[in-house]
């Protein structure tokens, strides 16, 4: 998820509901670090965060390498090309980012780019959103987008072959 902008209680509710093995927050959490859910979590600093957190992170599980950043340093509001180059540099299968508050899920040059949208303040999209990624042993990932009240957003996500 991304861009929770101080809505720590909503963030915790979603994490408790989803019960993910690992949570990725793409920045702009805008709370103190001790208000983040106490779960296995990768968190990066967004342009509105004051807490010390990495500006980017690489996380790997099950042979899938994730690159996580907020996105403001890569101009994600105008093009995915800069973040695509960075994902290639760190040899990531999946790049997760936020900043635009607009949900994106697209594959380019064999890499998957996921922006879960904003759980607090969507822009250019009708509802707040987050994404759930599920993996299988075949190198395929399944991405499903949800509203903050748990309803599936059918026009986003899908299944993608990584390798």
Automatic annotation (TrEMBL):
> Per its UniProt record, what InterPro entries does this chain match?
Calcineurin-like_PHP_lpxH (IPR024654), Metallo-depent_PP-like (IPR029052), Phosphodiesterase_MJ0936/Vps29 (IPR000979)
Pfam families noted in UniProt: Metallophos_2
Q: Which domain of life, per UniProt? A: Bacteria
What is this enzyme's class at the first EC digit? hydrolase
Give the UniProt keywords, A-Z: Metal-binding
Q: Which cofactor does it need?
A: a divalent metal cation
Q: State its Enzyme Commission number(s).
A: 3.1.4.-
Q: Which residues form the Calcineurin-like phosphoesterase domain?
A: 1-136
Q: Which family does it belong to?
A: Belongs to the metallophosphoesterase superfamily. YfcE family.
What is the name of this protein?
A: Phosphoesterase
What's the source species for this entry? Polycladomyces zharkentensis
């Amino acid at each position: 998820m991304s861009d929770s902008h101080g809505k720590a209680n909503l963030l915790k509710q979603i994490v408790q509901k989803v019960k993910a093995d690992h949570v990725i927050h793409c920045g702009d959490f805008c709370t103190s670090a001790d208000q983040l859910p106490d779960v296995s979590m990768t968190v990066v600093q967004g342009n509105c965060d004051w807490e010390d957190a990495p500006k980017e992170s690489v996380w790997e599980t099950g042979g899938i390498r994730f690159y996580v950043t907020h996105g403001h340093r890569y101009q994600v509001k105008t093009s995915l090309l800069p973040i695509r180059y960075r994902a290639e540099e760190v040899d990531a299968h999946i790049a997760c980012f936020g900043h635009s508050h607009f949900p994106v899920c697209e594959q380019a040059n064999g890499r998957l780019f996921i922006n879960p949208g904003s759980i607090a303040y969507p822009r250019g999209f009708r509802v707040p959103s987050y994404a759930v990624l599920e993996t299988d042993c075949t190198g395929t990932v399944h991405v499903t987008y949800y509203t903050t009240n748990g309803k599936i957003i059918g026009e986003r996500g899908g299944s993608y072959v990584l390798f």
